[in-house]
């Protein structure tokens, strides 16, 4: 099993291929060459954790063989950064873990995850230096929603309701200065929603890679229910980490890193393509990588707690402010 020190040394490569650029291998290295054959990037396969390839690419048997040999994941996305295929490094045959997953019917872990998520939404808002009366009230309201968890009398709909109300309060304040019209996943109605979708997708991919390393059935969640082809467990574990993306996008606005002219409007949706997408994916991926050790240790601790059926107090907690 991958250890924390080993993971610290691993790389996640985001290969946004322009016209004429090629991804290949030389000895035990992954190589990206431009249209003139010059090497633009080179990394040893020994240090790879995942390769996210954007744009048109040819996947060869050699690439897949190396991914299996060195234990890294390949994720293919469109130019619009939507994943459409993946080849995961994973632990097969962890039957005991999967049996525990299928037998688990409680909402205890779900409440723990949502408590942690609302708590970190409060942390993100508390980072804002100048606090208006509306912001102070929002933090107070979030604390009230958080403290209603856990509660054995809550059913799933009540937990979903609490999370939904808390998120509406939170988003309205974290993006209060940027004409926030509401969170609409996949609608991409404005640059902020588009960037949230991209950031959450990157986060989703990293966490899915880690869950696969332990042999989880990523389709069997504890909060998100089973739905055809939805990776519900990944959706669950992503929840406490979402404020990483939210706060980084807010910071990008403050640093003047977001420009409306970079976005194309396609079928009433704001989209980022090609070279225009590079700086945005770079700062979002960097925000995730700044917490990568925390994310690894969280998934590792979650696996151990779940396998040993520990009390909920011993399940991991993510803290936005803490970094390993």
List keywords for this structure.
324 residues; alpha/beta; three-stranded antiparallel β-sheet; 11 helices; globular
Short structural description:
With 324 residues, the chain is an alpha/beta fold. The protein contains 11 helices and 9 strands.
Description:
The structure is a single chain. By secondary structure, the chain is of the alpha/beta class. It is 47% helix and 14% strand. It contains 11 helices and 9 strands. It has helices spanning 4-9, 61-70, 95-103, 108-126, 133-146, 156-174, 191-214, 232-238, 242-254, 274-289, 292-307; strands spanning 11-16, 22-26, 29-33, 39-44, 48-54, 73-77, 83-87, 264-266, 269-271. The strands form 3 sheets. Strands 1-5-6-7 form a 4-stranded mixed sheet, sandwiched between helices. Strands 2-3-4 form a 3-stranded antiparallel sheet, with no helix packed on it. Strand 5 (48-54), helix 2 (61-70) and strand 6 form a beta-alpha-beta unit. Helix 4 packs parallel to helix 6 (156-174), helix 7 (191-214) crosses helix 10 and helix 9 packs across helix 10. The longest helix has 24 residues, at 191-214. The mean pLDDT is 91.
Largest sheet: 4 strands, mixed
Tally of strands: 9
- Helical amount among residues, as a percent range? 40-55%
Order of adjacent strands in the largest pleated sheet: 1-5-6-7
SSE sequence, one letter per element:
HEEEEEHEEHHHHHHHEEHH
Oligomer: single chain
Structural class: alpha/beta
Query: Number of helical segments?
Result: 11
> Can you give the mean pLDDT?
91
Rg value: 20 Å
**Strand fraction band?**
5-15%
Q: What is the CA-CA span between the terminal residues?
A: 20 Å
Note the overall shape.
Answer: globular
Low-confidence regions? none
